[in-house]
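Internal ticket #5521
Category: modeling
Description: The requester needs a full-assembly model to guide mutagenesis choices. All entity lines are attached below as received. Residue total reported by intake: 407.
Assigned to: D.W.
Attached entities:
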Amino acid sequence: MMKAPSQWSDQRIEDIIGNLLRAGVMLSAVVVLCGAGVYLARHPSERVNYHAFHGEPPDYTTIGGIFHTAFGLHGRGLIQLGLLLLIATPVARVAFSIWGFAAEHDRMYVVFTVIVLTVLLYSLLGSSV
Amino acid sequence: MNVLEFTGLVAVGSFAAGLLGALTGLGGGVVLVPLLTLFFKVDIRYAIGASLVSVIATSSGAAAAYVREGFSNIRIGMFLEIATTIGALAGAYLATRVSTGVIATVFGAVLLYSAYLSRRPRAKHERNLPQDPLATRLKMNGSFPESGGIRRYNVQHVPTGFGLMFGAGTLSGLLGIGSGAVKVLAMDQAMKIPFKASTTTSNFMIGVTAAASAGVYLSRGYIDPLLAMPVMLGVLAGSLLGTRVLVRAETKSLRLIFAIVIAVLGIQMLYKGLAGGI
């Protein structure tokens, strides 16, 4: 039989999730800011036009390309790395929840959470590696 | 416009959207796409990419505060995220296939609906509803602290809520918004979850839902770094400030003004979408 979830561990898990989310958002904002600083310092007077859609080059659409340009300290690559960290934050939250439900011996919710994580990883890795 | 001017103006606009969204509880993401497409003449695909990224930032930032207060129900959230993430994936693929006019038209309709929803008085729920067998099996019935002690609630109509959540996820993936309004509708109206628990749980789910479509957006080149940067930073700063001053602000007239802004933008998006101006 399944054990009733204990209030204490629920609260504890929620605390950790709260900290995880905050740290992820703040880290990504800092990386995006650094990228913005690098780019704007180097190209302050470049023209921008988003009226027509061209898509983005692979440097900014694949995880490998983003890491490559970010560690080459390109402004746009750094921004994209920060955005990737931001996208990864809720994914990490879900992954952590699996552990949380497992610690409560809640097998049903472990399964639900694995389904959600699979959809997230499919979207992130299946389309942008 | 050069990149400095553009970044500055978009950051200021996004800051205002994030601030108003947090103060009124209506979400800033919903005005971002019209702001970018109608005023900055940004292609709607770049606009929804930047908007989606900012949705993840505000949701995760706000959820960090909410989960600690114990209002959100992580089991309801996780179960319904199965529906919203699959919906979001479907919506994101749909966005890459339908014309921009269709996206703008649907966007306009969603804006008008959000404006309408924000003016409707909040329904008072009956307390002490009977336990629903499915909800009980899924361990969804919950409780949260209230001034008079602990408030317990029994969740109703799980399949309807699950279906509505799939729709909310699809809209989120198609339009790059959090679709908090549809999420609250599913939890508040269908599943009879108390307002406080449904709004905070909805906010908790928005980031995960948006992350499910973000991968598709990223690989299709919808997320432009130079556009997403001021949008994300502006909205995040605005919404963080908004949640700080929320306790002191008089939001009733602000909600009305913001609802009118949303409705006007909705009509414009609808017109542009149908007339082919986008």
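Resolution: model delivered.
Comment from assignee: The radius of gyration of chain A is 19 Å.
Ticket closed.
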